Amino acid sequence: MALAGFRTVHGIEESMKHPTKNDSKSDVTLRAVLIGLALVPINVYIVVQWETVWNTQYPTTMTIFYNVVFTFLSLILLNMLLKRWLPRIALSQQELLTVYTMLFLAVCVSGHDFSQSIFCTLGTARWSATPENDWANLFWKYLSQRLTVNDDQVLFGFYTGESTFYTAAHIKGWLEPMVWWTLFLSVVAFTMFCLNIIIRRQWIEKEKLTYPLVHLPYEMSREGNGHHPFFRNKLLWIGFGLAAGINLINGTTFLFPVFPQIPLGYNLNVYFTERPFNAMGNFPVQFNPFAIGLAFAIPLDLLFSCWFFFLLWKAERVVGSMIGVNMPGYPFVAQQVFGGYLGIGIVVFWLGRKPIWQIIKRAIGTKSDADDSDEPMKYRTA
Fold first, then answer.
1. Structure confidence by residue, pLDDT tens digits, 270-326
2. What is the pTM of this model?
3. Where exactly are the structural domains of the chain?
4. Quick one: DSSP state of residue 88?
5. 199 vs 209: CA distance, rounded Å
6. pLDDT tens for residues 106-147?
7. Label partner for 56 (CA 20 to 30 A): which of 67, 102, 208, 232?
8. Would you give the DSSP letter of residue 202?
9. 281: left (phi over 0), alpha (psi -120 to 50) or beta
């Protein structure tokens, strides 16, 4: 909601079109990299504890990692003090964004659906094998010893707890597979970087995609007339106050049930109890400040798709009930989503077929219109 208020008044896109004077410093500095390297282990450790050990918070399942935003906000506030008392050592906007980018990428790699999913399953085939499922004979022979953990004593401490990683036996058991998987993930990350170089010009300069996720850190770190307009916007603080107030009240209700609660949602399925409309199932209508704030940074056509296809799937369930469809998984939402991603991928390649062909010609050394002089890596290398 706070982001929504800021965008309503100032327009994030407009501010990004008119950079400030500090934007002349575009180089990534050594001190920004060092600050990022110092903050990366802290954020990664917190995320792993939240998502894997405690199972309480899952910041990497969201589009904006709030632990990174909080760290970034703390760094900006500290930088404000430096600009007031020690302006010579204060960080520029580019340096702040460098730190944010490093934190965001590091947390992404260590997140719920990336390296956590890999490292937490390295010993599953060994630990979960029983005489009944006969895993030892079925597929142990197909698993590389270098990519899995096969020491029962090491796995006992990992799966049952009440132990520590910092023992010679545990480190030895995990070291080799962790090294190999780290190399693999590094190659995957580098491949994504190369793909970004190939499609960057087409998406940014020709199709002019907006990349809404970068708006928040950009506006938080942007300066104008010696101050941060983001933090001086009244609508931002009104939105922040509403969202924070609701969360504080409902959090208090969770701890003390006698305290009144502010309801944020209602399920409409109580009004559809007879066929064919009861086939819609769960039909929640919610007022979520976090989702509303994110929605203001999302293009309108994408927002339209979100609620349109939600209603479409409900309508498909109703129609299926009317005509007697009784198939498990109907209306096959996951398959429709996969088809949507596949269609988007085909459209992306079709729209970019000409520049991609020029890039291929540049990479193989033939005459091409593709210019890679301002890219961080040559097209041939990518």
1. 999 999 999 999 999 988 888 888 888 788 888 899 899 999 999 999 999 999 998
2. 0.82
3. 6-120+169-222, 124-163, 247-351
4. G
5. 12
6. 999 888 888 888 888 889 999 999 999 999 999 999 999 899
7. 102
8. I
9. left
